[in-house]
Amino acid sequence: MATGVASKFHRAGFNVLILETETPTAIRRSVALCEAAYDGVMMVEDMTCRKISEIDEAKKCWNEGSIPLIIDAEGKSVKELKPVAVIDAILAKRNLGTTRDMAEVTIALGPGFTAGEDVHVVIETLRGNDLGRMILQGQAKPDTGIPGEVGGESLRRVIHAPSTGIITHKKQIGDIVKQGEVLFTIDGSEGQSIEVNAPFDGLLRGLIREGLQVKKGLKVADIDPRTDIDWRKISDKAQCLGDATLEAFYFLSQRNGER
After folding, report:
1. What pLDDT was estimated at residue 56?
2. Whole-prediction pTM value?
3. Which of 92, 105, 230, 246 is the most buried (most CB within 10 A)?
4. Is the pLDDT assigned to residue 259 strictly greater than 50?
5. d(Cα 98, Cα 88) in Å, to the nearest integer?
6. Are residues 24 and 3 in contact, defined by beta-carbon separation less than 8 angstroms?
7. Rounded to whole angstroms, how far apart are CA atoms 77 and 54?
8. pLDDT for 89-113, tens place per residue?
9. CA distance 29 to 232
10. Is pLDDT at 190 greater than 80 in this prediction?
C-alpha cells in the first residue's frame, strides 16, 4: 500500500523519501519498494528505489529520478528535512508516533488515527464503497481482521505463520500453485520443521522474505485465486489509496492557502 502511495507522488513530480524499519516484513515483495532495505535497490514498474545511509544522499537520488529509502523507524529525518507532507502508510492499525505538527500536511492510512487530532486527514482503507474516502474528522473503520474478498476467497487467501521460526521457501512469488502443495517451511529453534500448504489453487502473490525469523500468527503469504493477474504490477487497491492520498494532499494544500 505504501508503494502505491509513493508511486503517485513520485509520478506527480514530488521528491519522495521513504522511511523504513531495518527488517521490513512486506508480503507482496515484488511490488514493495521496501525491499531496497535488504538489496540496496528495488524496482517496481518504472520506479527505482535506492537505499541511502545519510539524508544528504537523497538529493542525488531525486536528481537521477529515483526514490531514496533510509532506515529510520523513529522518524528522526522528519525534523531534519522539514517536508511539506508526512504520510503514515505503516498500516499498523495503530498510531506509532505520527503527530499533526510534523508537517503542514499530515495524512494517515487506515484505523488507529483520529483526523483533526493525530493527523489532518485519514484515508479509509477498508474495501467497499468508502475505500479511499478522505476523512477530515474522526477515524477510519476499525480493523475487521477479515481480508477483503478476492475471486471468491477471503480468509483462506491470507496465510499466517503457524509457529515461530525461520522461513524457507519451497515456492516463489508468481508461481501457480495447487491445493496441498508445500509453499514454505518454518524451522523452529528446537529443530522441528513445519510445512505450510496451499489452501486452494491459485497464484502465489505474496511471500515473506526467506530467512526471516517470524512469530506465530504473523501474515507470511498471500494466494490469489485469480491466476491471470500481473503480480509485478501495483494492485488496484494500492493505486486507489495512492490516488486518494494525493487528492488529500492537494485538498489540504489549497485549504492552507498554498498553490
Report:
1. 94
2. 0.93
3. 105
4. no
5. 7
6. no
7. 10
8. 999 999 999 999 999 999 999 999 9
9. 9
10. no
Q: How far apart are CA 227 and CA 205, in angstroms?
A: 9
Q: Which residue has the cell 538529493?
A: 59
CB atoms within 10 A of CB 137: 10
Please state whether beta strands 219-224 and 202-207 pair in parallel, antiparallel, or not at all (unpaired): antiparallel
Grid coordinates in use for 47? 520506479
Indicate the residue type of 110: G
pLDDT digits (tens, 9 = 90+) for 23-60: 999 999 999 999 999 999 999 999 999 999 999 999 99
Q: What is the 3-state secondary structure (H, E, C) of the chain?
A: CHHHHHHHHHHCCCCCCEEECCCCCCCCHHHCHHHHHHHCEEEECCEEEEEECCHHHHHHHHHHCCEEEEECCCCHHHHHHCCCEEEECCCCCCCCCCCHHHCCEEEEECCCCCECCCECEEECCCCCCCCCCEECCECCCCCCCCCCCECCECHHHEEECCCCEEEEECCCCCCEECCCCEEEEEECCCCCEEEEECCCCEEEEEECCCCCEECCCCEEEEEECCCCCCCCCCCHHHHHHHHHHHHHHHHHHHHCCCC
User: End-to-end CA distance of the chain, in Å?
Assistant: 27
Query: Distance between CA 253 and CA 259 in Å, rounded?
Result: 7
Mean of pLDDT values over 2-19? 98
Distance separating alpha carbons of residues 217 and 161, to the nearest angstrom: 5
